[in-house]
Amino acid sequence: MSPHLVSQLSVGGATLVLLAGLMMLWRRGVEAHIKAFTAQSVALAATTAMVGWFAGDWQLWAVAALLLLIKGIGIPILLQRMARRFGTERELEPYVNTATSLLVGGLLVLLAYVVTKPLVSVSQLPTRTGMPLAMGLVFVSLFVIISRKKALTQVLGFLMLENGIALLAVLGAHGIPIIVEIGVFLDVLLGFIVMQVFVYQIHETFESIDVEQLNRLRE
Amino acid sequence: MSVPFLTLLLPPLLAAAGALVLPPRRRAAGALHAALGLVPLLAALRLAALVLDGWTPTWGPTDLFRVDALSALLAGCVTFVAALVALLGPGFGREEHYTPSQVRRFRVFASLFAFTMLVAVTANNVGVMWIAIEATTIASAVIVPLTVSKASVEASWKYILIGSVGIALAFVGTVLGYFDFVTLVGRREYALNWTVLMANARVLHPPVIELAFVFILIGYGTKAGLAPMHTWLPDAHSEAPSALSAMMSGVLLAVALYAIVRWRAVVNAAVGPVFSDRLLIGLGLLSLGIAALSLVIQRQYKRLLAYSSIEHTGLMCLGLALGPLGVFAAMLHLVNHMLAKSMMFFLSGRILDRYGSPEISRVSGLLRVMPWTGGLFAAGMIALLGLPPFGMFLSKFTLVRAGFAGGQGWLMAAVLALLAVAFVSLLAHLNRMLYGAAPTGVRQGEGGGWGVVPLVACAAALVVLGLAVPAPVMELLERIVEIAGR
Questions:
Q1: B107: CB partners within 8 A, 6+ apart
Q2: Residues of A in contact with B205 (CB under 8 A)
Q3: Is residue B51 exposed (0-12), middle (13-18) or buried (19+ Cβ within 10 Å)?
Q4: Other beta carbons within 10 Å of B239
Q5: What is the ipTM metric for this complex?
């Protein structure tokens, strides 16, 4: 593969990953959010595999396979199970409405371009062109977490944040050392499982997964 | 070199496995758990002795684990509080209300929590350090709602969400640091080793490493309880079982601060201290301010202690930015805070068991109802206020002196003013609890057997640190200043 093609494929892959993140802002249903996350994880795995092929690095292939297995298949199955349980609960009007959310999302991506400017200018890798989009996803995910009211939506925001960081690592440095990578996967999986338990617990205790009710502890 | 590492890291895992299979109410199971809690403390002391003898113990492929003076100090703090928790945690108390399954769950996850913190402070690889700190959130969040209530469920949700997101941001910073290294030096398995990063720090790109540090400071700062990312802390610390609060406040905050200190040394070697100093002073002062003002309006004693933790973390953060003497003071303060705050949370657990209410207004006549607990609670509060003869007087005094010596007069004036606000409000709250008539229905008499003895030892240690810092501790601190002081 020529570096030029790799550069274009990186931008293409990163764009898909980011677009799936922006879907969180304009769709309301939990089902749509889960589909967006699944699509995002698959796009991330594909981008990782592409970079692995270009760099001739088998470790990235392993990472891509893990991504597909854990984030593309495993976690979405668990998410679907939660959605079936809480599916009747629609996302309430978020703290910020859809039009404003999308505007904020756009501004955050612009901000990501400004913030990552020094990164892109020091790197020589052809994959660096996708880094601003990865950082954009990090910012958009943060916005999703603070502006949405359902515990389940916040969990999805967190998972997308992790995807954004994984993309940043793949494009900027062709992945982090494998031992760290495996540890990160383990953490994400365990963290997700505990969060899932907590969402069930919130539902049992408050009879809803609307985090607006979590306002007992104040002062 | 593997023996001290194995005796440090293996017992917590064995303790977790043992608690999982053994019947929690059996005395032998409790004794075994306590014994396994004590072994890592001895291992940490052994490692500290090796460091003082001039060694830097390492272990594992590509020196995965490495203990220098900074690691040794933190490992000592973590194992000390973990040993206290194994000795005094659920399962041992006479007046507690935990079911056997709750005791089991607590022992399993508290042991894993201790294990993850120990890995975090002994890992040479900053990526492994990150993994371990993320795992601390998971292990500890599970047992925040040990007793399920609306308040504890809410606290645990805030904790895991804000904690995980914060730590994720620290990972962005870690990735950016690695990115810069790879761009300059190329891909290496050991590139995330703290020693390798330090050795190559001078050539790192300033704008990239500065951006990385901003993410790292926000990320680990969230775990350390620095304002404005502190919002999870008062909830989690007040709703968690008291033994867990002791671990979270006494050492988890310190472990997060440790991660900041490690990265700050890399950043300072790359771009000089001015950049990180400004950020640390800003966050430290903000934390101190928010905590001092929040202390005034608190109605619950565990929340009071939680805000006091934010105050002290803010103070340590400021100390780091005040030159070598400031770093020295901050690290001494870390040890003092570990002793004082873990003792205070254990005591507040005893008070909660007896009075059955977390409200300050429902606790009165403490000195008469539980003379030992009341006396130690008063001593601990006075220690936290920074009065002699306790250790915090010395560390606070040194910190302020470092500030004035560094030409930060105005900053120190602001710090002293905020400390005065905290002083007055803590003293007022303490008065309300110690004196007056005990509420009707509250049983008189200390009770709880020997449970108070280890806490007396904490208070004694605070006095020793207040009179004169023992020579080995002093030497350890001086070596830390060499590592992290500039």
A1: B15, B16, B19, B24, B33, B86, B89, B90, B91
A2: 118, 122
A3: buried
A4: 28
A5: 0.94
| DSSP category for residue B126 | H
Give CA–CA dist B156/B149, Å, rounded.
11
Strands B58-59 and B65-66 come out as antiparallel
Tell me the three state secondary structure of residue A150. strand
Structure tokens at B15: 């303790």
- Domains of chain B, by residue range, sit at 303-486
Q: Is residue A219 part of a domain?
A: no
Tell me the C-alpha distance between A48 and A61, whole Å.
Answer: 7
Report the sign of the C-alpha dihedral through residues B445, B448, B454, B458, in that order. Answer: negative
Rounded to whole angstroms, the Cα distance separating A70 from A37 reads 12
Residue A218 in any domain: the answer is no
Does A217 sit within 8 Å of B235, measured CB to CB?
Answer: yes
Number of domains in chain A: 1
The kind and range of the H/E element at B65 are strand B65-66
Q: What's the whole-model pTM score?
A: 0.95
Give the burial class of A12: count Cβ atoms within 10 A of its Cβ; 0-12 exposed, 13-18 middle, 19 or more buried: middle
Q: Are B138 and A191 a contacting pair at CB < 8 A?
A: yes
Residue with tokens 């002795």: B49
Q: Which two tokens stand for residue A38?
A: 């699944």
Both tokens of B279, joined, read 């950020």
B26, two tokens: 């059996």
A179 and B235 within 8 Å at the Cβ level: the answer is no
Residues of chain B with pLDDT under 50: none
* Chain B contact probe: residue of A217, A218, A219 with most B CBs at under 10 A: A217
As given in the structure block, the two tokens for residue A3 are 């570096």
**Unique residue bearing structure tokens 């460091």:** B51
Which residue has tokens 């607990």?
Answer: B373
What is the spatial distance between Cα B372 and Cα B376, in angstroms, rounded to a whole number? Answer: 6
pLDDT at position B186 is 80
At residue B365, φ and ψ (nearest 5 deg) are 65, 30
* Residue B342 region by backbone torsions, left for phi larger than 0, else alpha for psi between -120 and 50, else beta: alpha
Q: Determine the structural domain holding residue A87 and report its residue range.
A: 3-213
Residue A91 clears pLDDT 70, i.e. is over it: no
User: Which tokens hold the place of B473?
Assistant: 């501790």
Q: Which of A146, A180, A192, A200 to mutate against chain B (most B CBs within 10 Å)?
A: A180
- What would the pLDDT profile of B329-352 be if each residue is shown by its tens digit? 999 999 999 999 999 999 999 999
Using a CB-CB cut-off of 8 Å, the residues of chain B touching A205 are: 148-150, 153
Amino acid found at A199: V
From the list B378, B295, B328, B278, the residue with the least C-alpha distance to B478 is: B328
How far, in Å, CA of B118 to CA of B339, rounded?
17
Asked if A201 and B187 come within 8 Å (Cβ–Cβ), the reply is: no
